[in-house]
Amino acid sequence: xxxxxxxTLYRGKVxxxxxxxHRISGVGIFFFLLVHVLDTALxxxxxxxxxxxxxxxxxxxxxxxxxxxVGAILFHGxxxxxxxxxxxxxxxxxxxxxxxxxxxxxxxxxVAGFTPMHLARVFGH
Amino acid sequence: MSVTIETPSRPRTRKQxxxxxxxxxxxxxxxxxxxxxxxxxxxxxxxxxxxIKAIDFAFVAGKWADPFWQVWDLAMLWLALIHGTNGxxxxxxxxxxxxKVRRALTTTLWAVCALLILLGTLxxxxxxxxxxxxxxxxxxxxxxxx
Lengths: 125, 146
Hints:
The complex is a heterodimer.
Chain A: H1 14-41, H2 47-55, H3 60-88, H4 96-123
Helix pairs in contact in A: 1-3, 3-4
Chain B: H1 19-47, H2 57-64, H3 67-95, H4 99-126
Helix pairs in contact in B: 1-3, 3-4
């Protein structure tokens, strides 16, 4: 059984890794969504309750995690558009690899632009 | 190199609706809508103004005093939860080998989804931006208590 799997059109390439990243980012966003609906529901309890919990979103640790969240949302959304293009656009499969790198580039640029602004707010006073 | 796919032991009949197809389609229709809804949500809440620093009860009250943001957030709530839950269901179907485990996980997922949609919808529509008895400094500037 010690046969090293040969590379295929799919395995080990952009198609596989984009799928892996899509799953991981999706699961991460899902669990954040559960927490986020619950924390927002606190506005119905009292202004104090909501403010106390939302303050934790402004702490350094959570503030840094938010960069990861924003990055995950951007990647998942843009890669989702790539998946739709592969499914419905006749040239989708031809350009799927190029589209993956465009998705990565746009995500990295957007997060890079957001990071200094966001961290200044989180670490500033 | 070629892969032989076995003939399905139980071919699909056309007697019942193809729910997997509708699920597949829903992901592709809700996806682009969620991009517009969530990317705007991120820009308005995290980029414009003071971003995360400005978010408190008064900020939420300011948004939900406007029916536009009520409907916006309602659409986001429903679409994101159904999209996310269906995605999780796909993952469960891929990795949960035992039928009992798969059913238990899928049922839990949809129960949590329904509960949060109900909770969120109630919160959006029963929300009072200027609750009586709250300390004035926590309320939005348009509240009479201010």
